[in-house]
Amino acid sequence: MENSSVTPSQGPEPSSNGRRRVSGRAIAVLAALAVVVYTFDQLTKLWVTSTMVEGERTAVLPPLLHWYYIRNSGAAFSIGENVTWVFSIIMTAVSVAIILYARRVRSLGWAVALGLVLGGALGNLTDRLFREPSFGMGHVVDFIQLPNFAIFNVADSCVVTGVALICLLTLLGVGADGSRHGKARSAAGRADQGEPDGSGRPGEEPPRA
After folding, report:
1. Which domain holds residue 116?
2. How many domains, in total, are found in the chain?
3. 142 catalytic per annotation
4. Per the domain annotation, does 193 fall within a domain?
5. Which residue in the list 41, 127, 156, 192 is annotated as catalytic?
6. 25-47 burial by CB neighbour count: b if 16+ within 10 A, else e?
7. Is the pLDDT of residue 193 over 80?
8. Which has fewest Cβ within 10 Å: 17, 44, 197, 202?
9. Which of 127, 142, 192, 197 is catalytic?
10. In what order do the strands lie in the sheet with 140-145?
11. Active site residue 156
């Protein structure tokens, strides 16, 4: 009697065209979100500088939210007010790094996160480069005031949100290329192969002797 064996099917690997489509979609999301964030940040700053004088404070939802127009030469909480040029260099480096890294991004979550950071970094970098007192030393327009918190702007909030999302994706084991690593990847691999995941859930027949 012939002994025939069946090799289990591994399933088709994703084609290069499929990977390119996913990568193109992620890059499009990243770029579009960066443009939206940058445009909204600059429009709100234009509105503030056109309708308010520096130091003016306007109640919006008191006591929770006020518009308070200031120009910040440093970072958050006015740190580093005398080294504005350092922040210009940092934001330039961050923006260039994201743009160069963008072609490797295939995860939509990472695309959203990096788009937020890129748009916010470019928004504040524009202030550093083109606002008074001089090129590269410009003061950033801040106007959003919450109780017991630093005054900030749209760009700041988008950068913080993007960084928080990057941290979350990293903790979940989601890579920028769409791969999963660590515990998330091994659990997914066991599920795909029909192996028990050690959770003790019923549903799988025990091996028969």
Report:
1. 22-187
2. 1
3. yes
4. no
5. 156
6. ebbebbbebbeebbeebbebbee
7. no
8. 202
9. 142
10. 57-61, 65-72, 140-145
11. yes
